[in-house]
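Q: Please design a sequence for this.
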């Protein structure tokens, strides 16, 4: 797991799943292309699925990843253990980080979402392995989420020493604006899930990273 945590410091794409962005298409079919293209981190996010449905889909995703990409679970800490995933991603309204760390132990990855410099500095004091800062741009995935913007991202990059992930409305057209600020790992949703060719979309995004 130490090697897996080290991956967080390297440039790469982080795909976060979203049912609305899928528009009824099969997630597993879409994932296969990006994985072949070099995607190395996936967060399974489904706020509405029952535990049994989440677990069954999670097993299929894990089998597809075959250890070639980090497998992160959004929100549901107990599912990290049930699926033996690589870690959990939490937000301000989720389980407290210290509680999650006590449950998951030191080896599992824990990520945390922030939208301001103050939140990022506070999160850095917690036992987290990476911080996700967003939304960088407006996004329909989280329309009510506070917009952090490029200026906040610039400030956070200068002050935070643990791995950072930029997220929120990032796509082929604006990814360069994010990359030049020094963020190595960039999270996307629609840029891959809504692409006509997820494989090519991933390839093109990775070229810019």
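A: Design:
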């Amino acid at each position: 797991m130490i090697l897996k945590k080290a991956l967080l410091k390297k440039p790469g794409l982080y795909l976060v799943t979203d049912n609305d962005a899928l528009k009824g298409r099969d997630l597993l079919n879409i994932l296969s292309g990006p994985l072949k293209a070099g995607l190395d981190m996936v967060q399974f996010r489904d706020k509405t699925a029952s535990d049994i449905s989440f677990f069954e889909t999670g097993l299929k995703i894990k089998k597809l990843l075959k250890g070639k990409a980090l497998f992160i679970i959004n929100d549901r800490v107990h599912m990290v253990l049930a699926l033996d995933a690589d870690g959990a991603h939490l937000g301000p309204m989720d389980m407290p980080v210290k509680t999650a760390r006590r449950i998951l132990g030191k080896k599992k990855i824990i990520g945390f979402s922030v939208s301001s410099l103050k939140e990022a500095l506070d999160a850095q004091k917690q036992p987290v392995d990476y911080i996700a800062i967003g939304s960088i741009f407006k996004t329909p995935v989280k329309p009510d989420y506070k917009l952090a913007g490029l200026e906040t991202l610039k400030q956070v990059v200068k002050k935070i020493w643990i791995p950072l992930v930029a997220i929120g409305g990032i796509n082929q057209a604006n990814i360069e604006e994010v990359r030049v600020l020094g963020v190595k790992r960039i999270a996307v949703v629609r840029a891959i899930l809504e692409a006509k060719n997820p494989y090519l979309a991933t390839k093109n995004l990775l070229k810019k990273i």
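Q: Thanks. Anything notable?
A: DSSP finds eleven helices and eight strands in the chain. Strands lie at 12-16, 41-44, 70-74, 87-90, 109-114, 130-133, 164-166, 185-188.
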